[in-house]
Amino acid sequence: MMAIEVFNRYEKKYVLTGMQYHQIIDAMSSHMVLDRYNEDKEFYQISNIYYDTWDDRLIRTSIDKPVYKEKLRMRSYGVPELSDKVFVEIKKKYNGIVNKRRTSMRLEDAYSYLYGNISLESIMEDYRGINTQVLKEIDYFKNLYGLIPKVYLSYDRRAYFEKDDGDFRVTFDTNITTRRENVRLESGSYGSQLLPPDTYLMEIKISGAVPMWFSKIISGLNIYPTSFSKYGTEYKKYISEALQTKKINTRKGKELCLNQYLQLQRQIMPSA
Fold it and tell me: Which residues on adjacent β-strands are paired with residue 151?
């Protein structure tokens, strides 16, 4: 079966305690079925590399909550070997609607392509069935910004689809792990934890309206949506720690301007 390469949907996020997680799992069990990745295990691992400019322009822009924002990442399910297939994808958000466009290739080829060691034409030649429109969008995006790998981010996921309408999806992510060194998928999951223990990020994903039965469940459990970006939260944590230790990555001796530091500090510590 060919993987879906283009998604358009709304997404809402909720941060749950362990108790809330188990309560909502029980409450929606009669309406939902597990994702195929969860058929033989409670959680499956998703690993990502986020690409950005040397001065983190994309994530800084995203944190400012513009009407339109976009990001580039590489994604695998589990810990891949260099010969395994991974996804390279652009995720865009405009007025609350999420558009994800992706294509797949071997991990070693994805590294070489995104590092600029092999050309777009070479990838199109080696992968005759690839979606060339999506690949050209990725190529334009990475070249426009001069993107480089910045962050490894993985998590364990439990995912559900509605029984009567596969369009409605609910996912629960935990053990969100990040690092800024050895940013490679095949190295596996290790690094800093983004959330406290026994905390879950729930996301609901749908192209239309949220089912009434689900709205009643979360309302009855006093669960409310929040603004939460995994990459954005990691970046704020990274900058906060860097400000405290006065260590900020620079490029060729260049320092980020004072106004940028102050802006980041206000975003991270509003009361400062």
Answer: 50
Structure-token pair, residue 110? 């994805």
In angstroms, the Cα distances linking 10 to 99, 100, 135, 205, 223 are 9, 11, 24, 6, 18
232 sits in the region (left: phi over 0; alpha: psi -120 to 50; else beta) called: alpha
201: its two tokens: 């990020």
Cα gap 266→237, rounded to integer Å: 13
The 10 Å CB-count burial string (b at 16+, else e) for 162-185 is beeeeebbbbbbbbbbbbeeebbb
* Cα 38 to Cα 36: distance, rounded to the nearest angstrom: 5
Q: What is the pLDDT of residue 270?
A: 45
C-alpha atoms less than 13 angstroms from C-alpha of 255 in its C-beta half-sphere: 6
Element (H, E) at 233: helix 230-245
- Containing 157, the helix (H) or strand (E) segment is strand 148-162
Count of C-beta atoms within a 10 Å radius of residue 38? 15
- Sorted by where each starts, the structural domains of the chain and their CATH numbers stand as 6-227 (3.20.100.30)
Compute the distance between CA of residue 219 and CA of residue 211 in angstroms, rounded to an integer.
13
Cα-based distances in Å from 103 to 28, 51, 77: 32, 16, 14
| Cα 114 to Cα 107: distance, rounded to the nearest angstrom | 11
**DSSP code at position 254:** B
Contact 91, 70 (CB under 8 A): yes
Q: Which residue has the tokens 């596996």?
A: 188
| 2 token code pair | 């060919």
pLDDT tens-place string over residues 62-121: 998 888 999 999 999 999 999 999 999 999 998 888 899 999 999 999 999 999 899 999
